[in-house]
Specification:
3 strands; globular; alpha+beta; 3-stranded antiparallel beta sheet; about 60% helix; 5 helices; Arc Repressor Mutant, subunit A
């Protein structure tokens, strides 16, 4: 058996959430809701350098967890939770955790 495109998507998804800073960014974006937040506000809230934030946003983008919208000269960012629910919800129903 060879990895399928779905396996690649799943690997990108878990890689996107596999770093504490990306988890922090994910949480900030989750709290802002579907409206999103401009890049400069996310930069301020995350306390990261512009290049570090951009790197982590690219990883979230590769995991298909990020929406970008340009408004004037600003880039607004929000979460695209379709991928999150595509991988997390089925796993919850397929795996039974024993206490």
């Amino acid at each position: 058996m060879k990895p399928t495109p779905k396996h690649r998507s799943m690997a990108d998804f878990f890689d996107a959430l596999g770093h504490p800073r990306r988890q922090m960014i994910f949480e900030i974006l989750k709290e802002t809701g579907p409206k999103g937040v401009p890049f400069h506000s996310l930069l301020k809230q995350s306390n990261l350098t512009p290049s570090t934030l951009s790197f982590h946003l690219r990883k979230l983008d590769q995991g298909r967890l990020l929406k970008r919208k340009t408004k004037g000269r600003e880039t607004w960012l929000s979460l695209d939770l379709r991928t999150f629910f595509m991988f997390v919800e089925p796993a919850q129903t397929q795996v039974k955790i024993r206490a």
